Structure formats: C-alpha cells, structure tokens
Amino acid sequence: MKTNFERRLARHLEELRWLYMELYNNNSMFAELCENLHSFAQARSAALKKRDLAREADPQWYKSNDLTGMMLYIDNFAGDLNGVRKKLPYIQQTGVNMLHLMPFLDTVPERSDGGYAVADFRAVRPDLGTMEDLEKLADACHKKGINLCMDFVMNHTSQDHEWAKKARQGDGEYMSRYFFFDSWNIPAEYEKTVPQVFPTTAPGNFTWLDDCAHYVMTSFYPYQWDLNYRNPRVFNEMMYNFLFLANKGMDMIRIDAVPYIWKELGTDCRNLPKVHTIVRMMRMIGEIVCPSVILLGEVVMEPVKVVPYFGTVEKPECHLLYNVTTMCTTWHTVATKDTRLLRRQLDIVNSLPKEYVFLNYLRCHDDIGWGLDYDWLNQNFGTDEKAHKKFLSQWFQGHWEGSVSRGELYNDDPASGDARQCGTTASLCGIEKAGFENDPAAMKQAVRFDLTLHAMMFMQTGLPLLYSGDELAQVNDYSYKDDPKKAEDSRYLHRGKLRWDLAEHAHDLDTPEGQVFCGLNSLGALRKTNPAFDTGADVWTLDTGDDGVLAIGRYFEGQKIIGVFNFTPWDKQVTFPHDPGAFTDMLTGEPYILQNLPVPAYGFYYLEQILT
Question: Taking 70 as the threshold, does the pLDDT of residue 612 lie above it?
C-alpha cells in the first residue's frame, strides 16, 4: 500500500516534472527536490499529518463563511510570540479564527522595511522569540480553532542574508543566485522597460556596490536583493525554506510580491508567464508535502492581472488573493459619495467563477494606492487621473471642505501628482476628528460609518480580514514622528501599538471602541451563522436609484439577504421595485418593506427576506 506521501506525489509527479524541466532542464536538481519533499513530509509532526488528512477530506475548508481573519504586528500587539499566545482569549472574543502575523523572520532592524528584508528564513527575529515559540503558538492556535498565517518573502533577500554576504565576497555560486553585473550595460537595458516601484524613496532598479564593484538588481530597496529564479538552486532552496516554515504549524502562507519573481530583459519584469509556472509548482509541492497549508497570493495590481494568479480550475495556483481594487475603490467612494465605480468593481468580482476566493479588507499594514479604473472614470465622467488623485489626497488629509478624515500621504510625487494614503479606518472615517473636538453627534455618525464600511466588506464575496486595532476604533498614532528610524515612513501612522487600555472598554456600549467592537462581533456572528454568506452564494448589486447608496444581494440555500449602505452624510430613501415582500433587519428584528426605505446618513441594513 502506498504511503500518503507516495499517493500525493504520484498525483502530481508528471506535471511537476514537466514544468520543472521546462523551466530548468536539470534532472539532478529535480531528483534532489523530490528527495527533499519526502524528507519534509516525514518531518511533519503527527498533529500536522492528522490536520493534513482532515483537510484533504475537506479541501474547501478555507472557503467557509465561518472564517474571519485579523492581521497584526507581533510586537505592536503583544510584544513577542509568547505574548500573542497569552492574548489568544482576546482574539477569540473578537470572533477572529485566522491570525495573520506580519513578518517576523530575522532581519537587521536598520534595514528591515517592516520585516520584508529577510536575513534568515529559518530564524525568528530575536526580540520576537524563537522557532520553538512559533511552534507553541501554532499548537495553541490549533487547539482553540484558530488558523495561523505568515508572510513568505520570496522575491528577494536582505543584503545581510548568508547568500548575499558570500556573493559580495565574489563567490560565483552565490552571485548567480542574484542579478550581478560588472558594468552598467545590461542594467541600462533593464531600466528602459522596467518601472520603478518607489521612484521617490528608492529610485531605479539597481544598486552599485563599491566593495565588489558590481551592480545588483534591487527592485524595492537597495538592501533587498532580487533573487534569480532562473537558477534552479534558488527555486529549490526557497521551496525548502517554504516547507520548513510550513512544518512549524502554518495553515496559510502569504507569498509576497509574487508578480516580480521572474525577470526577463526587454520586459517590464511583471506577471511574466514563468511566474505562473513557479506558483503552480509551489501549489503542487504544498499539496504533496503539507496539503493543509494554503497559498495566499499578494498581487497588488488591477483585476485583469490579479485573477490569473488563481490559475485554472484544473490547474490551480493560489487558493486566495487579496481584493486590492475593491479596497481602494471603497475609499474612492468614501470621498466622492458616488457608488457607481464600486458597483462596477463588485459586479466584476461577482462574475468570476465561485472557485476564486478573495480576501477582503478595508485597511492593512500598507498604504492605500489609488489604482482605480481611470479609463472607465474618464470615459463616463471625464475624470482626469492626476486631478482626481490630488482630490483624493486632499480629502483624506482633511484638506477638502466636508472631509472628516485625518490621514497622511506616503511616497508623494509632486511631478506625477501621485501619492498613496495612510491612516487607520477610524481616523479616515472621522472618529479621530470627532474625539479631538469632543463632538458627540459627529462621533455617533463616524462610528456608524466605520461599521457601515465593515458591514459592506463583510457582505462581499470572499473572506473578511480585519486590521488589528480596527476592532477597537483605534486612531492614528503620531508617535512615529519621534522615532528617527520611522519618521520618514508615514505608514507607521497606522502601525501603532495596540491600545490595550481601549480593549478594557470593548464591551462598554457608551464608548466608541465598545460600539465598534460589539458591532463587528454582531456582523461576524451573522456572517458565520447564515447560509447566504457562503462563498458559493449568488451575489449581485442592485439599482438603488441613488448613486450615493449601494445595495448588495446574496442568495444561498433558500435564504435571500440584501445589504444597503449609505455613503453620504444625508438621510436617504430608496426603493427596490423588483424586490417586493417583507424583510427583517437581521440586527434589530425590525420589519421593513423595500419601498421608500429610510437609510440613515452613513448607515446600513442587513435585510433578510421573509419567505412564505
């Protein structure tokens, strides 16, 4: 009888070999890969092997409407990994059962970029704990029904990584793992076609190294050296790192900056076909060694470039992808009070195959980039991209009449008019301003809008992801300006330490934090217990007759619900002529008929149709 490993390998071996040989044409390296897959499969703990079997029997587990995620920085949340373990009861109170830990692998603090410049893929940053602490946290999470997710930075290493140090010393084997050039000739050719990621803070795609007299490719920052996946040794070793981390108890691994990992001269080095070959091989390697682990792809691009990272139904790649465009379109809608672009974006997502599952979010550790559909905006409304981006920047800084937002710009480029936006959900919704001005009426409206945006996010097809602190309506943290290591990076505005003093009010409905905490709990409970929130549900948008009000319908297993969301500061009345009959407010139990439905300013409804 075949072992589980042999069974899984047999299912994928032919395709895996074909793709590997197409990419590398190297039999010995493929044989080494297979031998190591077997070793990592054997090294998995008994508990993880049991988890693998259970999730093989239920391969759609990650699509459950029971799942709600939260993203957090370990140090900001609880100091270290052991601190997070002690705070798991709080996580359970939030209704969260998928914990996404921001980068925690070893880095040099002065060159960390928030943890994305990894110096050692098999060591935890010393101030955060050890690999043993990580395993203890994973085990504790699993016992409480919580899934654990981590970042895997695969496009580059830190210049402090062992490979980089040896490459810098002139070791050809290690230089070949990066992109080294002894003259500017080839880098100059790359620069003709490759866009810059950070043109103002880290211009160019190459860095000159005086000590070894070579240029090295650095797409993001000078201390982050791009890996050369044309070298099979790079692919193999990074897969071994991936499996090493999976064996520490991860349930989900976020693969960072995926579109950038394959470079070809004469292209923009983004989303090239061989990127998909690598991701498909990663998917199969995971299914062979650790089938309970799923891949979350980070593809921060427009939908037409994001969707291919799901692969096909027959040959899947990522299990989950971030719904980046809907997120930034939501904030565009906040500023414009016009839901038409958002409705168009939701219609696009809703038309995709049910097998494709997005991770939806309002805020995360990063800035908001204004990657909107400007062609559609210009065609339909004459919107000028540069002028519109300037308007959005001013609105979310509170520099526009009527704005209650308090945010800051990141990577402001005066020449192009482009800038990204920073700030917590609460501050961008007006909670910070209302609190500073001690305005109870404004606070009530701001809290309502915060919950409305979250309710809209929970209504979308896919899985919701909260950002740590948002459950307590935590506002911007301006103390980063006093830290020389952070002062130049405004993203730390929304990366502040969790305010545990606010958590003491989590169940006090007389406080903004209690209202948001309990409100999100109610929304999460509804989502988990009602079939219409299933990822297999039919989902559509409805015409409200008012551009300021969005409506989303969901239907599954005989249950129909309609979500109504007012993006304006004015009370509205809307009618749904094609939805007659009686409805019930799922949060209050109040009955409604969808004729002249009163929707309060910045308010929302979850309405369930009463079936007779």
Answer: no
Catalytic: 375?
no
From CA 338, how far away is CA 353, in angstroms rounded? 27
Go through 178-210 and write b for each residue having 16 or more CB atoms within 10 A of its CB, e for each that does not: bbbbeeeeebeebeeebeebeeeebebbbbebe
The residue-averaged pLDDT of 570-575 equals 96
Question: What is the three-class DSSP state of 214?
Answer: strand
> pLDDT, tens digit, for every residue of 46-88?
999 999 999 999 999 999 999 999 999 999 999 999 999 999 9
- Strand segments, DSSP code E, in 281-393 are 294-297, 320-322, 357-361
3-state SS class at 380: helix
SS3 per residue for 582-606:
EEEECCCCCEEECCCEEECCCCEEE
Judged against a pLDDT cut of 80, whether residue 484 lies above it is answered with: yes
298 given a catalytic annotation: yes
What six digits make up the tokens of 41?
């499969």
Tell me which residue has tokens 């043109």.
Answer: 199
| 52, 298, 477, 608: the active-site residue | 298
Calpha distance 394→389 (Å, rounded): 9
**Which residues make Cβ contacts (< 8 Å) with residue 529, sequence separation at least 6?**
none
SS3 content of the chain, % helix, strand, coil (to 5): 45, 20, 35
**Residue-wise burial string across 150-164, b where 16 or more C-beta atoms lie within 10 A, e elsewhere:** bbbbbbbbbbbbebb
* Average pLDDT score over residue span 586-598: 95
> Is residue 201 pLDDT above 90, yes or no?
no
Please pick, among 80, 133, 256, 470, the residue that the annotation labels catalytic: 256
- Per-residue model confidence (pLDDT) at position 416: 67
Q: 78: closest CA among 88, 70, 68, 69?
A: 88
